[in-house]
Target: ATP/GTP-binding protein
Amino acid sequence: MARKNRRYPDAQDRPLNGSFSRVESAADGEYVVRTIPAARALKSYRCPYCQQTIPAGTPHIVSWPREAETAIDSSGDRRHWHTGCWQRHLR
Model:
């Protein structure tokens, strides 16, 4: 019988913490950051910096406070940013 290569049946079921995350420091604290490629950007979001929509299919950044990384449900702490807006936020 052939082996299935897909570990998670849906992109939304993948865990957010993992080897593709990095920690970045901003003036308001440390954040766990992950780059979302266009192929995995399945929904639209509102950027907290510019308040504009990030359309589905647009590569962007998702971040959450580092201290929330150990919380049981930190999904409420995650924010999706335009890549340029995130870079401006770090300054």
Remarks:
- The first strand starts at residue 22 and ends at 26.
- The beta strands are 22-26, 29-36, 45-46, 53-54, 60-65, 79-81.
- Helices lie at 83-90.
